[in-house]
């Protein structure tokens, strides 16, 4: 007899970015990085990856694109 394994839904929690436009972004020696935490049930996973740009505006656009691709149905909390 096999049991079906259910996985909890993955969700992304973020706050309004108007007051902190560089939220999730860090500059490491001239290159912008994105740091996010993904929550899935009782577990969470921290992701850190390079955006491979030294341009802040481009880094913000890439970060926003990452959020859209991770959870298109997620709302900004």
Question: How would you summarize the topology of this molecule?
Answer:
Elements: E1 10-12, E2 25-28, E3 31-40, E4 43-50, H1 56-70
Antiparallel strand pairs: 1-3, 2-3, 3-4
Notable characteristics:
single chain, 77 residues, alpha+beta, four-stranded antiparallel beta sheet
Structure description:
The protein is of the alpha+beta class. The chain has a domain at 21-70. It contains one helix and four strands, in the order ββββα. The protein has one helix at residues 56-70; strands spanning 10-12, 25-28, 31-40, 43-50. Strands 1, 2, 3 and 4 form a four-stranded antiparallel β-sheet that branches. A hairpin with a 2-residue loop joins β2 and β3. The model has no long low-confidence stretch (mean pLDDT 80).
Summary, kept brief:
It is built from one helix and four strands, in the order ββββα.
Shape: globular
- Report the portion of residues in β strands: 25-35%
Q: Which structural class best describes the helix and strand composition?
A: alpha+beta
Mean pLDDT: 80
State the helicity in percent bands.
Answer: 10-25%
Please write the string of helix (H) and strand (E) elements.
EEEEH
Radius of gyration: 15 Å
The rounded distance between the terminal residues' Cα atoms is 42 Å
The helix tally amounts to 1
Low-confidence stretches: none
User: What is the strand tally?
Assistant: 4
Biggest beta-sheet profile: 4 strands, antiparallel
